[in-house]
Amino acid sequence: MGFKCGIVGLPNVGKSTLFNALTETAAAEAANFPFCTIEPNTGRVGVPDPRLDRIAEISKSEKVVPTQLEFVDIAGLVRGASKGEGLGNQFLANIREVDAVVHVLRCFEDDNVTHVDGGIDPVRDAETVETELMLADMESLEKRVEPLTKKVRGQDKEAAATLELVEQSLAHLREGRPLRLMGMAEGGGKGMRMLHVLTAKPVLYVCNVAEDEAATGNAWTEKVAAMAAEQGAETVVISAKIEEEVAQLTDPGEKAEFLDALGLAETGLAQVIHAGHRLLDLITFFTSGPNETRAWTVKRGAKAPEAAGAIHTDFQKGFIKAETIAFETFAELGGEQACKDAGKMRQEGKDYVVQDGDVLLFRFNV
Predict the structure, then answer these.
(1) 219-231 and 122-153 helices, crossing angle to 10°
(2) What digits encode the pLDDT tens for the residues 190-218?
(3) What is the pLDDT of residue 303?
(4) H helix runs in the chain, sequence order
């Protein structure tokens, strides 16, 4: 199951620098966190998870495979994108294809890097992008009203439900509010997903700051954090320049020393990856053995057969049961056999809701 995060922002905010650092870091750490280029502006990066390494160590696995997120570097947006200005149509089409939006905001001064609006104001920049997306959503939804109305006259119940949702969405947008604040998240219902609206997608704000402010942030990042809090969104503060430098370091000790000198516990990119995982409301389960330990991703609330299907559709079709061990138990007792001996491996059926950190072995018959 693939999950895409689209990196968006105005020109000259550090969006592509962030993406390039992300991909370079992933390439440098290929042994642990595989990266592959799908297109020039698309890449997959492994989600760092110390539990994965611990499970692999206990199982003495030959291969370790993390779960992954896909990042898409989307062309910079300008005012009028909803009407086709700049690369507007391409920009909007690319956003429709992602599951979540990583919005990079410029929170640094640099006389050598011009700002399209003449000055630094990340909240204004966020509103510029949001406005264009809301205008695009309004245009898209308004086009649906007439054909849906005709179907409703023909007693089409599904069309009636869709029309009600469209009208509610339009009323919300006309109040100047993105659809993710409507109380119906992108994944919250089939109806909203089928509308293919842009502003229902969850958003992570990434504040790109100067190198000496990566650990502390600044007045601009505080304003962004306040805006994000009002929306129930998350904020990450990073310095894209620092991420570029970190990407060149291959020795883990040297990298840790470099970050420590800057007062940073982990790279900004690791923060972005973890926040993206949370943003999409994903959980991780594990499969493990001597050949391979692998992390898998499913939406929170997924049941055991769905988790089995993330590995292979045959596992879901022929699902019998899931032999389940919590990560903490697996780590504490020292592996699958020790958990079996202690009676800590549970037999779970089709209605079991998978928990974050579960170590699972699926039994199936096709």
Answers:
(1) 20
(2) 667 788 888 988 999 999 999 999 999 99
(3) 97
(4) 15-28, 50-59, 88-96, 122-153, 157-174, 190-195, 219-231, 240-247, 252-261, 268-279, 304-311, 313-317, 327-333, 336-341
pLDDT confidence bin for 91, thresholds 50/70/90: low
pLDDT score, position 83: 59
Q: What is the pLDDT of residues 331-359, one digit of tens each?
A: 999 999 999 999 999 999 999 999 999 99
Distance (Å, whole) CA 250 – CA 255: 7
Quick one: which of 316, 283, 314 has its CA closest to 297? 283
Nearest residue to 141 via CA among 176, 168, 101: 168
CB of 68 closer than 8 Å to CB of 170: no
How far is it, in rounded angstroms, from Cα 257 to Cα 1?
Answer: 36
Residue with tokens 């699958």: 336
Eight-state DSSP code of residue 353: B
Please report, as a single letter, which amino acid is at residue 155.
Answer: Q
Q: Which residues contact 74 (CB under 8 A, 6 or more apart)?
A: 6, 7, 8, 41, 91, 94, 95, 98
Single-letter amino acid code for the residue at 83: K
**Distance between CA atoms of residues 131 and 199, nearest Å:** 10
Report pLDDT for 136: 86
**Whether the Cβ atoms of residue 239 and residue 268 lie closer than 8 Å to each other:** yes
Phi, psi of 103 (to 5 degrees): -100, 110
Which amino acid, residue 32? N
Question: Which tens digit of pLDDT belongs to each residue from 152-185?
Answer: 999 888 899 999 999 999 999 999 989 988 865 4
| pTM attached to this predicted model | 0.79
Tracing tokens 């609330």 back to the chain, one arrives at: 301
What stretches of 210-303 show up as alpha helix (H) in DSSP? 219-231, 240-247, 252-261, 268-279
| Dihedral of alpha carbons 36, 63, 66, 316, sign | positive
Q: What is the DSSP letter of 283?
A: E
Instruction: Identify the CA nearest to 210 among candidates 201, 200, 219.
Output: 219
Percent of the chain with pLDDT over 70: 86
Contact 106, 120 (CB under 8 A): yes
Q: Which amino acid, residue 269?
A: L
